Amino acid sequence: MFKVTPNPPGSPGNASDKSSKSKKLDEAAQRALDYYLNPKPTDEASEKTQTAQLFMVSPDIDTETLLANASEDLLSISAIAADLADDVDGSRRSVILAISRMADGVHLLVERAMDRLEVQAAG
């Protein structure tokens, strides 16, 4: 059996008023999306070619400071790996100890580079 259903009742107000409200809402939504998803560059540096770098080392930091921070980070990596090695056994322990020893080796290289910088600065 086929039952006839009426169309839903129309909303009060004229059609042009509704379309202008709808248009304003659409424009506002578009502005909000553009603001959050497509931000405009705020300075000249951001207008340059963006390389999508998440982190960046400040270009005005001297070499000695960079090497000192690298040295401290390598010591931290070695300490973390050595501590973690105490909690695991087998091949995982060997891998973690290898990471610790590699960090120690790179730390020695960084320390030697720092020593050479000090000699150059003194001489």
Question: How would you describe what is shown here?
Answer:
With 123 residues, the chain is mainly alpha-helical. The chain is elongated, with a radius of gyration of 32 Å. Among the domains are: 16-41; 63-122. It is 67% helix and 0% strand. It contains four helices and no strands. The mean pLDDT is 83. The longest helix has 32 residues, at 91-122. It has helices at 15-37, 44-47, 63-85, 91-122. Residues 18-27 have a biased composition (Basic and acidic residues). Residues 1-27 are annotated as: Disordered. This is DUF3077 domain-containing protein.
Summarize this structure briefly:
The chain has 123 residues and is mostly helical. The chain contains four helices and no strands. Residues 18-27 have a biased composition (Basic and acidic residues).
Q: How many E-type strands? A: 0
Class by alpha and beta content: mainly alpha
The overall average pLDDT, rounded, is 83
Which band does the percent of strand residues land in? Answer: under 5%
Identify low-pLDDT runs. Answer: none
Q: What's the structural blueprint in terms of helices and strands?
A:
Layout: H1 15-37, H2 44-47, H3 63-85, H4 91-122
Question: Which keywords apply here?
Answer:
elongated; DUF3077 domain-containing protein; 123 residues
